[in-house]
Batch of 2 targets.
Target 1
Amino acid sequence: MRDALERQRHILDFTIASLLRRKGKNGSLLAVYTLIIFILASVLFFTHALKREATEVLRETPEIIVQRTMTGRYQPIPLAYADRIRDIRGVITVQPRLWGYYYDGNFLANYTLVVPREDPPEPGKIDIGSGISRIREAYPGDIIGFTGHDGKPRNFSIRKILSDESQLISADLILISEADYRDFSGISADQATDLVLRVRNPKEYTTIAEKITRLLPDSRPIVRTEILRTYDAVFSWRSGLVIVIFSAAALAFVIFAWDKATGLSAEERREIGILKAVGWETSDVLQMKFWEGSAISLTAFLLGMILAYAHVFFASSFLFAPVLKGWSTLYPQFRLVPYVNFGHVAAIFFLTVVPYTVTTIVPSWRAATIDPDAVMR
Amino acid sequence: MILHPSILALFVSSLLICLMVLYSTVYGIQILRRWDIASGSESQLALERKTYLISTIVSYFLGFQLVSLFLFIFTADSICHLFVGAMCAVGTLTVNPFGYPTLLLKVVTFLLAGFWLILNHADSLGYDYPLIRTKYLLLVVMAPFILAETVIQGIYFLGLRPDIITSCCGSLFSPASRGIATEIVNAPPLPMLALFYASSGGTLLCGAWFLARGRGGGLFALLNAVQLVVALTAIISVISLYIYQMPSHHCPFCILQQEYHFVGYPVYIALFGAAICGFGAGWLSRYQGIASLAEDLPGLCRALTVVSMACTAILVAIASGYVLLTGFTLR
């Protein structure tokens, strides 16, 4: 056992020395290989981290949201609907929500207006998110003006700035009192934006949703798991799409690796010839080639993964964030929570190392079966 | 089809593995037909060279095959929430009728691949290619399975449509529905546990005897094959109950999840490792009469036996840990 290990160690030593002797050729291969793994790993890490973020955010959302639609378009929902839904067995609470968006033409940004259920600001006051505070340079005690639905300006004084912790949700948020919101948006007193339901038993979600559509045909219930599933499918689909587009680049890499592997220089051929002349067997040369492939693959793999990790989790993946997450003026600055799992590592491995091995295996064997006399003659 | 990165990875890699294995099988058939070690003809020399290529290709790709089984289960587990009603890999696999056949084929090729790698290693110990015919015969047997796996996995992935209502493991593995899975589940738990311990004990004893005397290899191989089936049944029907600490949850995939500390991975690796090494060791003991292997083969057999016994011991230890140390009881 010890002898076998020693043997492999010597072959590995020799291989690495021989790789280092041809720095240019192997260096360029390594660079391209690393780049490929870097791009792939960045896409995977980034979409997965976004998915986790979305799941975290959605964990707190209500089980069922009920909206009203009129010929497929969204409408405010009458508060009377809430009482009818409350009668459905299994529904614990029904709460109307008031919220909407406000476009600030001066700063080209969209804000989200919400009437909070707990601790709402008193009329005339608002709480704002850190993103709004940043771009409007507004701080507690300042007066801030918005144009209401009727074109008349309304002034609010800032009660406080929302904490930074949940940037993804709160950066563009404005918390406002119910009276102010109704006055500002023009929504009548017997209507709400939508209704949120609490349901005790997760198995009843779909049944309750069905009952609501039967009871109130113009309503549209949205179950939380549906939102989660859609987010997940969208992010997986986006990263899959990027990978498919990216496969052209991967193909180029495979051709590149094939070319490098088949184009044995005269010097390399002589080296293998001499090795065989001094007593190396074909299997030893193949082992050398195995270590060569492993050394290159492993280095590229680790390097690519580490770079991708740094790119996504420390540098907020500045390279393709716009493609994968969309854009907004007020986009929150947030650090993603680092997370890598077995599935990612294995997926990257199967998408890069396996094709690389396929392309290099036959050329390696060709090299290993060279007759010593043929090259040294 | 769902454009999920892991699915793409499995799809691409299984296609490549299948291509390479088929390529090798073509040469494998040539070797089976025309191999003659005594001849010094041009074609024999070419074949001798080719056999290096084939062994290299097959050992690489069978190595990949071993990892892909776990990636497959992991992927099935991680995309389950895309399907209404699915709560773990069981739900994903029942989305269309090709899920379970894919898994079954993957397990079969996993076991065959492990056994082939052992044969290949033993063959490389002798200078005159002593096991070359057996090895390539096994490759020819294995190739259709790998081809079938690639095709069926492809159909399975292409047929995956999110939102299809599938069953959750709770209903598939509940005693109400019938089928092979429920037969396994309905095996009486305590006698099954006794059978598991008896089979493990028997395998370990036989292994010890094989180590000490160098005889009984065939029996050891047989016992390991039996142990694989018994242990798998026991995991589903009773050991999982102790792991989940619930009297009705029998799912063989949930134990791979984080909530159960990924205990499924050591369990399945030990289970398959014991089966492959044990069966390999027992099978190889048939070749002790071959002159060129006389020196190295006994050492290899012993090493494989020790690994197999260690894996069985680990499996028994994990199972016993859950049975004895958790507060859950079936009485």
Target 2
Amino acid sequence: MSGPVLSAYRVTKRFGGRNACRDVSFDLWPGEVLGIVGESGSGKTTLLNCLAGRLVPDGGSVAYETRSAGIVDVHHLSEARRRLLARTEWGFVNQDAREGLRMGVSAGANIGERLMAVGARHYSEIRGQAIDWMARVEIDADRLDDRPTTYSGGMRQRLQIARNLVSNPRLVFMDEPTGGLDVSVQARILDLLRGLVEGLHLSAVLVTHDLGVARLLTHRLMVMQGGTVVEQGLTDQVLDDPQHPYTQMLVASILPV
Amino acid sequence: MPDTTIQDTLPQDGAYNYAYLDEQTKRMIRRAILKAVAVPGYQVPFGGREMPLPYGWGTGGIQVTAALIGRDDTLKVIDQGADDTTNAVSIRRFFARVAQVATTTHTGEATIIQTRHRVPETPLTDGQILVFQVPIPEPLRMLEPRETETRTLHALSEYGVMQVSLYESIARHGRIAKTYNYPVMVNGRYIMSPSPIPKFDNPKLDRSPALQLYGAGREKRIYAVPPHTPVKSLDFDDHPFEIETWTESCALCGSTESFLDEMIVDDDGKRLFVCSDTDYCESRR
């Protein structure tokens, strides 16, 4: 294991004449969690979608080191390869769990979908893995056959995480995974994510506007404003000694408890 | 009344082209059929026409039959296995009138069999064509509402979601509870809806010597299974595909091997099981 898992080089995306993100470059190393912070509209989610191959950038490139086939350019892969990558080696955790889950089928089927998509055809084994993952994300196994519509927000988010991690990905994209949840539920999910990321040696790109979340989960931080990265560095360094005026403002605007 | 006399007494309609559709339309449909045969299980779009019967009554099947039929053909039409239901009789009369073809109720004598909801019990042979009427050609429709997405899923052979639906069925019912329109994998490539035939008939599709053509009139799709093509019903290793079984036998012919309809015969709820395939049943009595 030598090079970075994911390298972005001058990624640029425009909507109309407006830059949503401009010239973003970084390397993500194995086992590293990179945080992207900034206010609403600063281009965080657009960047994440470009990285995950969900949006095609207008400029720049994204390289990913696959498990078996070496380094590939995400946006020059065939659609078939990219979709295969997205459901085997990658995970994507949406802010709204409803977008990432199949709400019409049971939790077990949600977790098992990726396994079945790559050819698992043994019902009991799929179910066994689903039960195993329910335990790992701390959902009672007796909720296995319930639909996510009957779950609370926090449980849905944990189910979405399980559904993504069941295929044993090496890179997970997370878009505000704790957004819209109350503080105690947030804490549990952060705890869970931290444990999983370390235990599975995952690399992750985490988009958040919550500096507390960034402090807890990420190793490195990029601060975005108006589509460009204004500051980046180790998380503690950026948060404790912000250099750029915007970062200083961002850090200073955290409400004291 | 035997069908030959029906044909003799019907007026020969000079106002319509042979077999109702104009030649250009038949040619377009034949092209779609050829493509469908070349890519087994792939849904080929075609310019479906208005037919003189409502959508859902077999407009797709009728157009396929009209494009194929010639004066030498012998047509059999079945609806739920029966030759004598309104839909079957109307379509048979329609072709007797517009295409002057011989019609029959005997599976063995027919060259083209248009069917709704059943495959005949009598094994089909080389040279026969089975035309299915299909209401919803897209097997993934209830799982994925977007047509652009289902086409992509077919193109990339991404069929995890279909397996998810079977998983869900076992999780909820303890077994795969789907009994009709049971999804099949054609030639190891495309997942196909076999039209609403009971899953009892699915094994008859596998490597059948007859050509199977599927026409969906409302959705304007044609797809096909060429003779001797492998057709596999989807399942799990530990929940294998199974067909329906009955403890009863047919009350009329005593068959224990055919698909049985359950009928309630009086106000006390007395039940009777009879073959759904009327021709098969009659031939055994």
